[in-house]
Amino acid sequence: MLQTSTLSFLKSLKKNNNKPWFDENRKNYEAAKKDFEGLVQQVINTHGKNDPAIANLKAKECMFRINRDVRFAKDKSPYKTNFGASINAGGKKSMRAGYYIHIEPGQSFVGGGLYMPQPADLKKVRQEIDYNLAEFKGIIDGKKFKTIFGGLSNDPELKITRVPQGFEKDSPAADYLVFKSFIAMQPVSDTAITEKKVIQTIVTAFAALQPLLGFLNRNIEE
Fold this sequence. Notes:
The protein has one domain. With 222 residues, it is of the alpha+beta class. The chain has 10 helices and 4 strands. A hairpin with a 5-residue loop joins strand 2 and strand 3 (109-114). Helix 5 crosses helix 6.
């Protein structure tokens, strides 16, 4: 479970996103960060029994920095207003499909998948879907996957408008070949994220996601 004080810190940070305030409240940040780290490690330790690829990970290897890269951003706010962790065999820097935890007041979610892969890897995934459509649909249309995630994220930002070059326009897999990212997310309320059973909630979601990650990763190399 996550402490309510961690959500309170993130709420306050959103209202006071500046360095002087952050420096003044650094102890609160460190406590919130440690709290999130504990949550991530519990999830790794628990789901690692089902997925050996992540079993030996440390939470610190998966957690993203709270500082924003504002070099090319219009918004110059120096800090993110969330905690995030990419749980993957290669840690947060891996380009493979993996699990994700996002903690943000009113906008927390768990899930994962493959986000904006390199062109060569994306082509491999599309070929795998084209060759093995029945298997792919069996995963994303499965009862557990549908119940928890509702399906793949259908955000237009994650898709292109037409079947990519190199694939038949009338391919039975056409609806999936236009995806640029293959991700699934389950929202988690502020109340749920601070309950003891949240670890099991996250692990259940990750178990439903695991077959998709296996499918996406089998032709992707680090």
